[in-house]
Amino acid sequence: MVKWLNYHHLHYFKVIASEGSIVKASKILFVGQSSLSTQLKQLEDSLGQKLFERKNKRLVLTEAGRVALEYADDIFKKGEEFLQVFNEQNLSSRTIYNIGVIASAPKVIASSIMQLAKKYNDESIISMREDSPEELFKKVLTHELDIVLTNNLSHLEGVELQIKLVGTANISIYGAKKYEKLSKNFPQSLNGVDFILPTMHSKLRYDLEHIFREMGIKYKLVAEVQDSSVKKTLGIEGVGLISLPDFAAKPLVKEGKLYKIGSLKDIKEEYWLVAKKRTIKSAITEKLLSSYKV
Description:
- Helix content is 43%, strand content 25%.
- It is α/β, with parallel strands linked by helices.
- Helix 5 links the parallel strand 3 (96-102) and strand 4.
- The two termini are 53 Å apart.
């Protein structure tokens, strides 16, 4: 049997918790003490937990009560936000703007998107989180995320979304100094060499394996890494060769930490901003999507 939450009871519980007394809460709520006690009891019965215990003539939250209060605070905060958004007919009035980013995304692009979002609404808190493309798309469809930066559009069939290409990058092979000599006979020099590749769900992994097969290159896979920072670190330490967008590798090449082995002219990494189409549009999302003229 499905249990329904009584929001009046939850509101009464929240006030009682803040006042520490049914007597004080009844004066604020203009609800009789006996009625308030009854409705608190009904909430406890529906949850199957005692929410308060009495200590020194004061109501103190139990462990279950503390958890319930955290949820109550979140619920009513969301309710206030909900009314504000729809009264103003603008989703940009939200207090938090949530951006999802694939772990392999270049930090320079992710950072620029965050800065633009903040520029377009300085009142909003910009929240950015990393995840796999599959998880990010699930979250953008359920409105848990407002927009997503990804390099993989393979999960989008049949979904009504706003999609904008925000950048492309040439991909090259890089390695530590001990691999520098491999540049002389590239790409045949890659045969039998240790490689650190993106994980299997990455489009770049598919593209790399495809071109290696066409070239007849048989590499040695030593690790699968999606996080670009970890991949760079392993490359610098000489664990294996890595593939990177040229702009992302440039600072490390300049510092002498990585060496360019060769370019893969037929492979480009594309980065996309993806958002779900909404009846009430987010001003931040609309401005982000219109900012890029790739």
